[in-house]
Specification:
With 418 residues, this protein is mainly α. 59% of the residues lie in helices and 2% in strands. The chain has 15 helices and four strands. The strands form two sheets. A two-stranded antiparallel ribbon has the order 1-2. The chain has a two-stranded antiparallel sheet with strand order 3-4. Helix 5 packs parallel to helix 11 and helix 6 packs antiparallel against helix 8. The longest helix has 35 residues. The radius of gyration is 43 Å and the shape is elongated. It starts with a helix and ends with a helix.
Length: 418
């Protein structure tokens, strides 16, 4: 029984193989001459009309151009670079290089908008320039290179190094402490008007600094944490705050300059203070007037010089200065100037904030309450203290009218014995 089944299976397999072989050979036999050796006659050549009729019809639509058919090469024309867009289209269809060369060259096209409202409406791409630190390219790209390759990385490094240096100095040296004991007798260092001027300017500066840091560096440390939506709203709000607080900073800075310029006038004693490094690196603090040379440097270099540049460029960016057209190129230059001056000013003010808070005992209290102890004045501002002792400067400058005369500070001998 088993032999019969195996025989039947073998027969079926042989039959299937034969059928598959016949199916493969049959078409080939129809397409080739007989294998019997008979020679078939060659077909007669067809007429041209018949060949044309028998040829397949060409496909319709757009056909690609053979680059070898363009003779001579388009760029071999001596006038190639001077071709108009119409002339270029004849030899290189779709090549709009002449048009874009004019656009990138700053050629002004037609615009129906008034020049006073849209001075650059006819210019798509700015002209080629080379800003410090950029390649020779169009002004927009040159500004981007300066901002991203120089201002952002080196500005962040400046602020970080300044903060790191202050931290190292604080944790290695600690605050500048009073060596003598307090006498209990007070001297008015800042009047209420002076403190109001200082704090209003300080609050405006801190607000502008924080908002500016978020707008410039926020995408590196806040965007990954907050996400794009929340960070976008935060940047938009801070930008609006920045624009509105800017004019307040202008007003308070002017008050700062006119209020403190007399006490910050340079004197020959400032060179002695600078030569000894203000006593920060060992030794006794050199004698100084109401403000020492370090404070005067912050006033003249930070508040007056850098502050004036920051204010002028900021007002320009806000389009608040009359007589300017406010083109893209002018705004780009103003932004670069504003950013560099602001970063330098922030680094300088960081040192001022450190000395006025953590760096020196009694400095923050003097600006908060307006008074310092005689011992503090004698140790940190000896020449100012001597002028008060000599009666050249009143110890209480903001005394209201009709109030009793304040007690005079103790003499130098009494203060020394205390």
């Amino acid at each position: 029984m088993s032999v019969t089944i195996r025989t039947r299976h073998a027969f079926h397999a042989l039959l299937a193989t034969a059928l598959l072989g016949w199916a493969a050979v049959a078409p080939a036999q129809e397409a080739t001459p007989a294998a019997s050796g008979a020679v078939t006659a060659s077909p007669a050549p067809a007429s041209p009309a018949a060949a044309a009729a028998a040829a397949p019809k060409a496909e319709g639509g757009i056909r690609s151009q053979n680059i070898f058919d363009v003779k001579p090469e388009a760029s071999a024309d001596p006038n190639y670079l001077n071709q108009t867009n119409g002339e270029r289209n004849k030899v290189q269809p779709g090549n709009n290089a002449p048009m874009w060369r004019q656009v990138s060259g700053g050629v002004t096209g037609y615009s129906s908008l008034p020049v006073s409202q849209a001075p650059e409406a006819g210019n798509l791409i700015q002209r080629f320039v080379q800003y410090p630190g950029s390649r020779f390219t169009n002004a927009g790209e040159a500004w981007r290179q300066v901002r991203n390759d120089w201002i952002i990385p080196y500005g962040a490094a400046l602020l970080f190094v300044t903060l790191l240096a202050l931290a190292i100095f604080y944790f290695t040296r600690g605050p500048i402490r009073l060596h003598g004991t307090e006498t209990g007798r007070k001297i008015e260092r800042f009047t209420p008007f002076e403190r109001a001027t200082h704090w209003s300017n300080a609050l405006a500066f801190v607000t502008l600094a924080i908002s500016g840091i978020v707008m410039a560096f926020g995408k590196f440390f806040l965007l990954p944490v907050l996400g794009s939506t929340l960070f976008g709203w935060l940047a938009y709000v801070l930008k609006t705050v920045h624009n509105f607080v800017g004019p307040l900073f202008v007003v308070t800075t002017l008050f700062m300059i006119f209020t403190f310029i007399r006490s910050n006038w340079p004197s020959k004693d400032d060179f002695t203070w600078l030569r000894h490094g203000g006593g920060l690196f060992g030794g006794k603090e050199p004698a100084s007037h109401r403000f020492n040379a370090g404070e005067k440097a912050v006033f003249w270099g930070g508040v007056l010089f850098l502050g004036s540049i920051v204010i002028a460029s900021g007002l320009f960016l806000d389009k608040l200065l009359p007589g300017f057209v406010y083109t893209r190129g002018e705004m780009q230059v103003a932004h670069m100037v504003h950013a560099v001056a602001t970063l330098l000013m922030m680094a300088m003010i960081m040192g001022h904030i450190y000395i006025g808070t953590l760096g020196m005992d009694g400095a923050y209290k003097a600006m908060r309450e307006g008074y310092v102890d005689e011992a503090w004045a004698r140790e940190h501002h000896k020449l100012w203290y001597d002028d008060i002792q000599a009666g050249k400067i009143p110890a209480q400058r903001s005394q209201p009218a009709g109030a009793p005369e304040p007690a005079r500070p103790a003499t130098a001998q009494q203060g020394t014995s205390a």
